[in-house]
Amino acid sequence: MLSAKAQYAIHALTYLGEQYQAGYIPINQIAEKRKIPAKFLEAILLELRKAGVLGSKAGKNGGYYLLRHPRQIEMVQILRLMDGPIALLPCVSKKFYEPCRLCPYPENECNIRRIFLEVRDATLQVIEGKSLLDLMQKEDYPDDFVI
Amino acid sequence: MLSAKAQYAIHALTYLGEQYQAGYIPINQIAEKRKIPAKFLEAILLELRKAGVLGSKAGKNGGYYLLRHPRQIEMVQILRLMDGPIALLPCVSKKFYEPCRLCPYPENECNIRRIFLEVRDATLQVIEGKSLLDLMQKEDYPDDFVI
DNA sequence: ATAATTCCTATATGTTTTATAGGAATTATA
DNA sequence: TATAATTCCTATAAAACATATAGGAATTAT
């Protein structure tokens, strides 16, 4: 399951997506609208900024905003940032690979690994290519919003 | 990612699969062969027994054994027993469904949900129909072992 | 009887997740 | 320039969960 953090991130980002190019959005507004604990959200947004997903402006009338068009923000990047690996086992992870400590057989012969590699590939098949825009409620936005 | 518990369960079960119909296998043997902490394994095997996956016999020369042929033990059952939902969000879970607490829109209109439903379906597509036998190193066993 | 095992409940230990605190820095604007 | 509203940053608290162990009761073969 996704952590609360990852879910909060998704909801915050879709909210910011709705306000794309509408200026700086303060944390408290997002927190209130999406029912996310404000201080926790603050930490999440900070992380997203440091990862180059969000921009921010401090001071009065400041806030956060998307650095790229929602179509250009990859869903899989958000998931990995918040929760780490997509794969269910370290030995089949693309970005967080670690060798298996339990398996008595070589990796390339392991059937456990083979199957969990299939699972990972099936998951990536779905989410790679998906963007923040796909997660948003597109109907709510003007036609010219979509690239 | 799978918990250590789920990984231990898989390894213990494949080990028992290798010994299918070879009598009662004591916890300590499994623990030693698969490098699993014995007391933790004990709790896991107990759970698998209560779920009807394993049988056991107490006393001298006792131990655990598979109640069904490895082909008849569903991979997905093991994963759900050990780690709960397959789905990444409660609102798309088949067996552990819970409504979304954050989403402002009705479920059937939510694009977040739509995508995570796709992910779940892709995952289930791979693992439903897979059995313990698929996780085992079949090559090690006599031909007549496979149904 | 003894030894080897499972059974069961409780608890300890460690780690991660979730959440909050609080003050410094920044900025708009009155 | 003072004020208010914000982000920035580090630290820490609190809660939940995962992992692991303890220890004795019950069972069984020999």
Kindly summarize this structure in a few lines.
The structure is a homodimer of 147-residue chains. With 147 residues, the first copy, chain A, is mostly helical.
Q: Could you walk me through the main structural features you see in this protein, from its secondary elements to its overall organization?
A:
The first copy, chain A, is mainly alpha-helical and 147 residues long. Chain A contains six helices and two strands; from the N terminus they run αααββααα. Chain A has helices at residues 4-18, 27-34, 38-50, 75-83, 111-127, 132-135; strands at 54-57, 63-66. In chain A, strands 1-2 form a two-stranded antiparallel sheet. The radius of gyration of chain A is 18 Å and the shape is elongated. The mean pLDDT of chain A is 93. At the A-B interface, helix 1 and helix 5 of A face helix 1 and helix 5 of B. The first copy, chain A, binds a DNA duplex (30 and 30 nucleotides) through residues 3-5, 24, 26-28, 37-40, 42-43, 45-46, 49, 56-64.
Fraction of residues in helix of chain A: 40-55%
Q: Biggest interface in this structure?
A: A-B, 41 and 41 residues
Strand percentage of chain A: 5-15%
The side-by-side strand order for the widest beta sheet of chain A comes to 1-2
Strands of chain A, count: 2
Distance between the termini of chain A: 32 Å
Q: Give the uncertain stretches of chain A in residue-range form.
A: none
The H-and-E topology of chain A, N to C, reads as: HHHEEHHH
Radius of gyration of chain A: 18 Å
Sketch the major β-sheet of chain A: 2 strands, antiparallel
Shape of chain A: elongated
| Average pLDDT taken over every residue of chain A | 93
Helix/strand-derived category of chain A reads mainly alpha
Number of helices of chain A: 6
Tell me which oligomeric state these chains represent. Answer: homodimer
